[in-house]
Design brief:
Layout (H helix, E strand, L loop, with lengths): L2 H22 L3 H20 L6 E5 L15 E6 L2 H12 L6 E5 L12 E7 L8 H11 E11 L6 H16 L9 H4 L4 E9 L5 E8 L1
Parallel strand pairs: 1-2, 1-4, 2-3, 4-5
Antiparallel strand pairs: 5-7, 6-7
Bound molecules: S-adenosylmethionine (SAM).
Length: 215
């Protein structure tokens, strides 16, 4: 594939993601609040955000994690979808004293300097972006050395019957904006990030929490 064609297909995929989440914003919480809630709660508990720390949440969506951060913790939530962010802003209005900044931003080009954040969380976003490797590189870049990066996502399973189901569902899931068959290696080879913990979360352990230390 030529470079122009590959760049075009990434741009097309990004536009599709934005379009899909523009529509999904209205119904997102109804489906994904409870279903993916345990993974979200566990991820924030592993992140152990402290007062005075800077936390970046990538793909903050409708802000379902926002009530989980303690007061005094400076949270920046970025998302590419304005309608999803609108929902997050509404949620934030109900959270007195929370220090949260919500910004429309592409996770593939995070507009913060190197090492700006103490901790970075990316819940259920890495299989939604067309080029997850570049998002991982950006998350590593903006996390300070010694900081924590946590990714929660569904990854391709090694279990043959399940892998067949994933392959079957992939065209449909890609159409609605995420991949069922993302290999774990898409995130584990990021320079500057060492995987220190891996656990299964949510229903049937079908999602994984990956905790990295920024070296
Ligand atoms: C499955 S939702 C997850 C939302 C939220 N993290 C949660 O736990 O419910 C994926 C989110 O990633 C956002 N997203 C997709 N591509 C993005 C990108 N390139 N940069 C920033 N956000 C992106 C979507 O707009 C959507 O809000």
């Amino acid at each position: 594939m030529s470079r122009a064609t590959s760049a075009d297909s990434v741009a097309d995929a990004s536009r599709r993601v934005e379009k899909v989440y523009g529509v999904l914003a209205r119904v997102y919480d109804g489906f994904f609040d409870w279903a993916l809630g345990p993974g979200r709660r566990y991820a924030v508990s592993r992140l152990t955000p402290q007062a005075g720390e800077r936390v970046l949440e990538v793909g903050v969506g409708t802000g379902l994690t926002l009530p989980l951060y303690p007061h005094g913790c400076e949270v920046v939530g970025i998302d590419i979808s304005e309608p999803m962010l609108e929902r997050a802003r509404t949620r934030l209005e109900g959270l007195d004293g929370a220090s949260v900044l919500l910004k429309r931003m592409d996770a593939r080009a995070i507009a913060y300097g190197d090492g700006h954040f103490d901790k970075v969380l990316a819940p259920y976003v890495i299989s939604v972006v067309p080029n997850p490797e570049s998002v991982m590189v950006e998350m590593a870049r903006v996390c300070r050395p010694g900081g924590t990066v946590i990714v929660v996502n569904h990854f391709q399973t090694g279990f043959a019957p399940m892998a067949a189901v994933e392959r079957l569902l992939t065209p449909l899931s890609t159409w609605v904006g995420f991949r069922m068959d993302l290999p774990l290696t898409a995130v584990t080879g990021t320079p500057g990030l060492t995987l220190v913990r891996q656990e299964r979360v949510n229903m049937l352990g079908m999602w994984r929490l990956l905790e990295f230390r920024r070296t």
